[in-house]
């Protein structure tokens, strides 16, 4: 099993797909890295040589991935919150940040519904 940037890549997948298991690498960046290292995109992870793995490791190190990227994202959110930006306030309140409607929907961000204001006489 190949290990790049602290992530075990699945052996049976093509390298093009397997690289996307690393946080911060999508399909476009994976294709760019493969083109840069001149590796056949259809090769399986289990068929990679040590030399090819080293090339991939060095190519991936150029980009912020995994822990480094996660910390950058959290620092950006903390900065928005501290300066009191609109987006920071939305993050603090746990509301959608990018302009989505909240009258209905937005359940994944707001959490489960809480009924308010119903009281019945006995």
From TrEMBL:
Any one GO cellular component localisation term in the record: cytosol
GO BP: any one term: translation
Keywords: Ribonucleoprotein, Ribosomal protein, RNA-binding, rRNA-binding, tRNA-binding
Keyword Ligase annotated: no
PROSITE patterns for the chain: RIBOSOMAL_S13_1 (PS00646), RIBOSOMAL_S13_2 (PS50159)
Listed InterPro entries: Rbsml_uS13_C (IPR027437), Ribosomal_uS13 (IPR001892), Ribosomal_uS13-like_H2TH (IPR010979), Ribosomal_uS13_bac-type (IPR019980), Ribosomal_uS13_CS (IPR018269)
One protein family per Pfam: Ribosomal_S13
Coiled coil: none
Keyword flag Zinc-finger: no
Region listing for Disordered, in residue ranges: 94-122
GO molecular function: rRNA binding; structural constituent of ribosome; tRNA binding
Function recorded in the entry: Located at the top of the head of the 30S subunit, it contacts several helices of the 16S rRNA. In the 70S ribosome it contacts the 23S rRNA (bridge B1a) and protein L5 of the 50S subunit (bridge B1b), connecting the 2 subunits; these bridges are implicated in subunit movement. Contacts the tRNAs in the A and P-sites.
Family: Belongs to the universal ribosomal protein uS13 family.
Subunit structure: Part of the 30S ribosomal subunit. Forms a loose heterodimer with protein S19. Forms two bridges to the 50S subunit in the 70S ribosome.
Protein's name according to its UniProt entry: Small ribosomal subunit protein uS13
Organism placement in taxonomy: Bacteria, Pseudomonadati, Atribacterota, Atribacteria, Atribacterales
């Amino acid at each position: 099993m190949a290990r790049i940037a602290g992530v075990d890549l699945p052996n049976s997948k093509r390298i093009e797909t397997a690289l996307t298991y690393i946080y911060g690498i999508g399909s476009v960046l994976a294709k760019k890295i493969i083109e840069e290292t001149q590796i056949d995109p259809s090769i399986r992870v289990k068929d990679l040589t040590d030399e090819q793995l080293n090339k991939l490791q060095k190519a991936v190190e150029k980009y912020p991935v995994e822990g480094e990227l996660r910390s950058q994202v959290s620092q950006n959110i903390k900065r928005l919150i501290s300066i009191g930006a609109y987006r920071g306030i939305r993050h603090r309140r746990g509301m959608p940040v990018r302009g989505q409607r909240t009258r209905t929907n937005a359940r994944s961000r707001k959490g489960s519904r809480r009924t308010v204001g119903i009281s019945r006489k006995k």
